[in-house]
Amino acid sequence: MSMIKVTVVDREGESHELDAPTDMGMNMMELCKSAELPVEGTCGGMAMCASCHMYLRSDHSLPEKSDDEEDMLDEAFHVTDESRLGCQIHLADDLDGLVVELAPVG
Amino acid sequence: MIQTDILIIGAGPCGLFTVFEAGLLKLRCHLIDALPQPGGQCAEIYPKKPIYDIPAYPSILAGELVDQLMEQAEPFKPGFTLGERAETIVKDDEDQFIVTTNRGTVHRAPIIAIAGGLGCFEPRKPPIANLADFEDKGVEYIIKDPEFYRGKRVVVSGGGDSALDWTIFLADGVASEVTLVHRRDGFRGHLDSVQKVMDLAEQGKVRLLTNAEVVGTEGDGKLETLTVKHKTEGEMSLETDHWVPLFGLSPKLGPIADWNLNISKNAIEVDTFDYSTNVPGIYAIGDINTYPGKLKLILCGFHEATLMVQSAFKRIYPDKNLVLKYTTVNGVAGF
Hints:
The complex is a heterodimer.
Chain A: E1 3-9, E2 15-21, H1 28-34, E3 53-56, H2 67-73, E4 83-85, E5 98-102
Parallel strand pairs in A: 1-5
Antiparallel strand pairs in A: 1-2, 3-4, 3-5
Chain B: E1 2-3, E2 6-9, H1 13-24, E3 29-33, H2 40-44, E4 50-51, E5 60-61, H3 62-73, E6 79-82, E7 86-91, E8 97-101, E9 106-109, E10 111-114, E11 120-123, E12 153-157, H4 161-171, E13 177-181, H5 191-202, E14 207-209, E15 212-218, E16 225-230, E17 234-239, E18 242-245, E19 249-252, E20 263-264, E21 267-269, E22 282-284, E23 289-290, H6 298-316, H7 327-330
């Protein structure tokens, strides 16, 4: 199994270093849920609810946001230029060392 | 008062299938849902998305699944209380539950099945500290009666169809002033609505503030001023009578959290023998329950509903023996 390291900073500012498989078709929302971090993922990963809103905190270059993702961020709050939906960040080998921070809820 | 055998809270796929399984046992059902239409998330969030893990359907649109479930439940004539939220629950002296909605509709049943998914869909509220002070005093999350805004100054926030549609409607001689605030330049609504708003802005009928968001509310007893923060130009004040933030809906567990049920991580703990909660007579099925090994899948909810109604039957008729009858033998005899 192919693994990378990913760091998630929770809403209390605590860092969680997670082992993330890159051959399971997983995304950051699912990874956070499997690590029992407080990410809802209400819609299940279809970019239709914005409950996995997070900020990119490392200088990895992620694929451009799709229109769906950009549209859904309209329904989130505390949106910045670093905002992404976790469900749209697909775990891949080139994301080793990725750092994200969970956006506030509500 | 509405009397039934099983009162189902939540009209999503799991609640709808409960009607069918209960019907086979000659138990009548009534459903309450906060949304105005049945189908839960499938109808509200992703009706046009295909689902691939419903047994025997290689692919089915979520909206179609809801239609099929409605058709399957139809012979058993379920009742619906839609657009109302189940608010309170008490027991009467005949061991029946009385459930009252936020609009005062009263229901009575010996069995409650909570199939509430992730909770009730409620408007997303912007994170402004004193926002609650102005709710219904100038801040409204849903436009119930557009006439309410006649001759008033209105600020609408959001970038979707409802924000665009209401902006267009209110600007057509209803409100005295309409301002639309949106966090970026692009809008996600229908292209012709976007064009119409742009045209109205050009004609001076709508004030368009893009790359901006409302960050503060002020007023003496009612809303008077909004603070709007522009991405590059800083903050400005905006005098207004009303602010209508339209940021979609998100599910909240809501009043069920106060029903004295054992709750863990926003879900109701159940016994996997029959999906009963800690309160005898109240069951929880589908995404709203939790137990070791729980998977939030529609197909698991169907299984839970099926076992749950068996237990409910025995609770209602302790002296009757239940025999599992196959639909292939007897068909489906409705009410």
